[in-house]
Amino acid sequence: MLSVEQARDAVILGVRAVGDVEQVSLGEANGRFLAQDVRAQIDHPLFDNSAMDGYAVNSSDLVMHDQVLPLAGTSRCGDAPSTLTAGSAMRIFTGAPLPAGANAVVIQEEVKQAGARVVVCAPVQPGANVRRQGEDFRAGDMLYSYGRRLSALDIALLGTAGVAQLKVYRRARALVLATGDELVQPSARLKPGQIYESNRLVTALQLQDLGVVVDDGGIVRDDLAALRRVLARANDYDFVITSGGASVGDHDLVKQVFSEIGEINFWKVKIKPGKPLAFGRIGEGAHFFALPGNPVSSLVTFKLFVEPAIYAWNHAAPIQLQLKATAVDGFHRSAGRTEFLRAHVYARAGTLYARALSAQGSHMVGALRETNALIRVEAEDRGFERGDQVAVIPLVLDSWQTTPAQLATHGWQTTPG
Ligand code: AMP
Ligand code: MG
């Protein structure tokens, strides 16, 4: 059985990365993976300009004229760079071009304007309050390498650098389906023995967050013919992701069909939850994951294996963010598998705390409301004590907020204000 790391490596190495590239404008590039290296088109700043509202001067003129200079001209934002009349000061605004001949800007708070003259109250160093051309980056500087997933921050930089069009990898296409005779849509009326299905939707949403275009393969019965029928389309996709039916039970059909139409790379990982999990490839370009049916196992294995696969497919280094936090409660178990506990992580006075949620059964979803991270317990470890440092994998950053009520449930006293 593979360890988590071995399985993750097998995924990353087993993925055939995309070759198809498309061109997008900057406004369409958020969340896309770069298919090119990107260099700055221009220097930034593009020209010397003022960092403050004030007066552009030559610092040696001030020394020569006892800090008093006649006022001549104005430099506003959008003005073409002008020239400072020797021995004078020029009114200037933040971002406006520094006139040729000036080497500093005196901030307006340090200047008294007396008629057509300015009196500068303090000594001025050359270069003061000047943003130098190219001090941020130069035309031709390498800004990004291919495989980088672009964020809104990157779009800001690329826009400033004059990059309007980008080559990115085409979006991955995925087929997502759930298997199980007991499963029905949340909109359906439950018959005895049936349960509501949610893995498909969650998987699809997580894929969409990674920029993947998802087709819904529906709920498929535990039936070889039905599975074969749906998976006959597998080659139209870059990823086929199923949930359920992957264990060694009687209805272990998904693995069987995948082994008929493709090649299974591995199908067992030494983790809890999520041990029965298959990864492999169908033909040249299609990859499959048979995730476990238990909703929590499905979430955990998605994070551990599917997310890195999507990154690898996009020529990107997978995110493997792991933080250290202080355990709020102890947790004890028998050693054996690497375990991922649903946890609530929060910061208090600059320290990160993690609380393992109480209901850890892989069928228990009630605790997802508070889950924003996983605590990782190494295979050989038997748990941890309150106050120990534990390894934490962040999940849902939007829910890293902490309310006083949550703090109170963790035993912390909070006082308003
Ligand atoms: P399986 O992996 O098919 O053996 O399923 C393991 C457990 O997860 C069983 O209790 C199933 O009823 C449940 N399960 C399987 N698929 C889903 C799903 N899509 N949504 C909710 N529960 C599921
Ligand atoms: Mg099943």
Nutshell version of this structure?
The chain has eight helices and 28 strands. It has 417 residues and is an alpha/beta fold. It binds adenosine monophosphate (AMP) and magnesium ion.
Shape designation? elongated
Helix content: 10-25%
The description of the largest β-sheet is: 6 strands, mixed
Number of contiguous helices: 8
> What structural category characterises the helix and strand content?
alpha/beta
How many β strands by DSSP? 28
Low-confidence blocks of residues:
none
Q: How many angstroms does the end-to-end distance come to? A: 53 Å
User: In percent, how much strand structure appears in the residues?
Assistant: 25-35%
Q: Mean of residue pLDDT?
A: 93
Strand order of the largest sheet: 7-4-6-5-9-8
What is the CA-atom radius of gyration, in angstroms?
30 Å
Q: What small molecules does this complex bind? A: adenosine monophosphate, magnesium ion
Structural account:
It is a single chain. The protein has 417 residues and is α/β, with parallel strands linked by helices. It is 19% helix and 31% strand. The protein has eight helices and 28 strands. The protein has a six-stranded mixed β-sheet. The protein has a six-stranded mixed β-sheet with strand order 16-13-17-21-20-18, sandwiched between helices. A hairpin with a 3-residue loop joins strand 20 and strand 21. The two termini are 53 Å apart. The mean pLDDT is 93. Magnesium ion binds next to loops. The site of magnesium ion has 6 residues, from loops.
